[in-house]
């Protein structure tokens, strides 16, 4: 299994990385949230820029200020409306803000695998030390062929595989976990997987045992259904944590 590293932090065999989102409407508010996350128990910060009121004026300096305020590795994510995010995809704006994020020094970029073909220019300019997290969300179901979908993701020009599914029954959570285990065992890329919603919560707690190397929690606001509060996750793990 390939170990997950984002910026200066790495998952271990016992513990996945913990990431929490910034869900701000303005970049100034994002700086405030980044500062709160700096003081929290999370390892990594995901800036969900699709929550911003507008992306038209997002500058390198704004992104730098957010990175400085958290001092933790930042994953830069525009989750498009097509995959449950807040902003519709625009090729030009996407390329511009992602290039700004690279210049500002983010640790990783989340790029939906459906956009890889449309963002060839961007892909060419991403330096080796910026990780590409290729993501795919199934918001209504758990596809039956998850192992082959994950195997296919391993072949894409991405560094890290991220897959989220919505379980309709408890056995769907098993399918997500066991498929993760099967693919993670031999894959030369780290995997991050989760089942969403209340039913999927166990996958966010025990996913590491199946090969998922990062778990998303809520510190300020949730960015997906079923995220636990960070304090609840640590309590379930039996980790002592004083706020
Ligand atoms: O891809 C993911 C995972 C996620 O959807 C979750 O289910 O926790 C939350 C998103 O913010 C993140 O980009």
From TrEMBL:
Residue numbers binding 3-dehydroquinate: 46-48, 79, 204, 223, 227
Catalytic activity: 3-dehydroquinate = 3-dehydroshikimate + H2O
InterPro entries listed in its UniProt record: Aldolase_TIM, DHquinase_I, Type-I_3-dehydroquinase
EC number assigned by the record: 4.2.1.10
Catalytic residues as annotated in Swiss-Prot or TrEMBL: 137 (proton donor/acceptor), 162 (schiff-base intermediate with substrate)
Keyword Lyase part of the UniProt annotation: yes
GO biological process, one term: 3,4-dihydroxybenzoate biosynthetic process
Keyword Amino-acid biosynthesis assigned: yes
Quaternary structure and partners: Homodimer.
NCBIfam families (UniProt xref): aroD
Task performed by this protein: Involved in the third step of the chorismate pathway, which leads to the biosynthesis of aromatic amino acids. Catalyzes the cis-dehydration of 3-dehydroquinate (DHQ) and introduces the first double bond of the aromatic ring to yield 3-dehydroshikimate.
Protein name: 3-dehydroquinate dehydratase
The organism of origin for this protein: Weissella hellenica
């Amino acid at each position: 299994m390939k170990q997950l590293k984002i910026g200066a932090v790495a998952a271990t065999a016992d513990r996945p990385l913990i990431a929490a989102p910034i869900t701000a409407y303005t970049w100034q508010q994002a700086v405030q949230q980044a500062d709160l996350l700096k003081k929290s128990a999370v390892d990594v910060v995901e800036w969900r820029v699709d929550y911003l009121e507008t992306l038209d004026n997002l500058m390198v300096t704004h992104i730098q200020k957010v990175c400085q305020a958290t001092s933790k590795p930042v994953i830069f994510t525009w989750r498009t409306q097509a995959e449950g995010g807040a902003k519709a995809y625009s090729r030009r704006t996407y390329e511009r803000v992602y290039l700004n994020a690279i210049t500002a020094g983010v640790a990783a970029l989340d790029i939906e695998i459906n956009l890889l073909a449309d963002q060839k220019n961007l892909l060419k300019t991403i330096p080796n030390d910026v990780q590409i997290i290729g993501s795919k969300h199934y918001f209504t179901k758990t596809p039956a062929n998850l192992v082959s979908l994950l195997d296919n993701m391993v072949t894409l020009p991405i560094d890290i595989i991220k897959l989220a599914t919505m379980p309709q029954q408890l056995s769907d959570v098993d399918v997500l976990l066991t498929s993760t285990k099967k693919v993670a065992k031999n894959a030369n890329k780290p995997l991050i997987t989760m089942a969403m919603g209340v039913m999927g919560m166990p996958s966010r707690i025990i996913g590491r045992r199946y090969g998922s190397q990062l778990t998303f929690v809520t510190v300020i606001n949730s960015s997906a259904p079923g995220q636990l509060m960070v304090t609840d996750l640590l309590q379930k793990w039996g980790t002592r944590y004083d706020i």
